[in-house]
Amino acid sequence: MKNIILTGDRPSGKLHIGHYVGSLKRRVELQNSGKFDKIYVMIADAQALTDNFDNPEKVRSNITEVALDYMACGIDPKKSTIFVQSHVAELTELTFYYMNLVTLARLERNPTVKAEMKQKNFELSIPMGFLTYPVSQTADITAFKANTVPVGEDQLPMLEQAREIVRSFNGLYGETLVEPKAVLPDNKACLRLPGTDGMVKMSKSLGNCIYLSDSADEIKRKVMSMYTDPNHIKVTDPGDTEHNPTFIYLSAFSSPEHFERYLPEYANLDELKAHYERGGLGDMKVKKFLNAVMQEVLEPIRLRREELAKDIPAVWDMLYEGSEVARKVAAQTLAEVKKSMRIDYFADRN
Ligand code: ATP
Ligand code: MG
């Protein structure tokens, strides 16, 4: 069996540091590992429209932003096929056939969709397109016969749904589709990076993000005003590091070398945490260190991004080429799907 990756992001905003540690960083490592036959990276514009249908312009403008974020982080169009979902109409047709293999009750049970419905005030009246996006995500993954999907933790229910549809399809119509597996970040802090406001997830839709494209000043401002432990009022108070986003970000981003460079009085994060937990360490000092770390991590990404942003037509050319390649692959899978279902009527006319 071939080793194929499919991943993607919704162009509902620029990408943030949660995307970086939750998925982008891993994608670049996998891309450069040489262990994969094919890598497809999808800008999920059709999926983004399911909850932004009233604002297609937002989705349109963010396609370029996401493409720039990808390349700035090291996704290389020479090694990975970057494409735009809506250009591949075959995905919609696959979705239509897969829709028969899922019940309404099953879709309504999806915990991520449930949480997102609440967040978007869709609880009383849910657009069908939004409710069924896990089915279209199954089409995206299976169209490319992907067996590996590097994602953040919130995507696990989508992968489970995809595996169910694949099993059901193969059981009914014969072995055709490949069952995908999720690849999660190794570092626990990266599974679901919290927002700067302390909310459980940094999310474009919640406005609690540090973006990969933020200027040095914006990063500093956001870090300095971050939510910490509300019970850590005086410096001498003992503090909590487990639910404190400043420490979670440090777990995700800092290394012993950062301590050597910016905070040499501590050998590593464990020592800093221990001090905060027993009391006597102020939030300001932690935030200053975090700011230094974030600046170091994000500066090269931002500079590459600024360089790439000078030629937007080249970005669209790259996306068009990738989308054409993706379309051919998806068309091949769709033909196999129709053959398995024996609805390829005109193919066997002769
Ligand atoms: P939206 O609010 O529009 O859904 P989002 O910020 O959740 O945007 P997506 O495009 O839905 O971003 O997610 C893209 C990928 O990034 C997924 O694999 C998801 O698991 C991962 N991801 C998103 N947010 C985080 C986060 N805070 N921590 C870790 N991974 C994340
Ligand atoms: Mg999301």
Gap from first CA to last CA:
32 Å
Give me the side-by-side strand order of the main sheet.
1-2-3
Q: Could you describe the largest sheet, including whether it forms a barrel?
A: 3 strands, parallel
Broad structural category: mainly alpha
Rounded Rg: 22 Å
Measured by DSSP, the beta-strand proportion falls in: 5-15%
Describe the structure.
This protein has 350 residues and is mainly alpha-helical. 53% of the residues lie in helices and 6% in strands. The protein contains 15 helices and 5 strands. The strands form 2 sheets. The chain has a 3-stranded parallel sheet with strand order 1-2-3. Strands 4-5 form a two-stranded parallel ribbon. Helix 4 (90-98) packs across helix 8 (133-143) and helix 8 crosses helix 9. It binds adenosine-5'-triphosphate and magnesium ion.
Please specify the SSE layout and strand pairing.
Blueprint lengths: L3 E6 L7 H17 L4 E6 L1 H5 L6 H18 L7 E4 L5 H9 L5 H5 L2 H9 L8 H4 L1 H11 L4 E3 L5 H18 L7 E3 L32 H9 L20 H9 L2 H7 L6 H10 L4 H26 L3 H29 L10
Parallel strand pairs: 1-2, 2-3, 4-5
Helix pairs in contact: 3-14, 4-8, 4-15, 8-9, 10-14, 11-14
Adenosine-5'-triphosphate (ATP) binds next to helix 1.
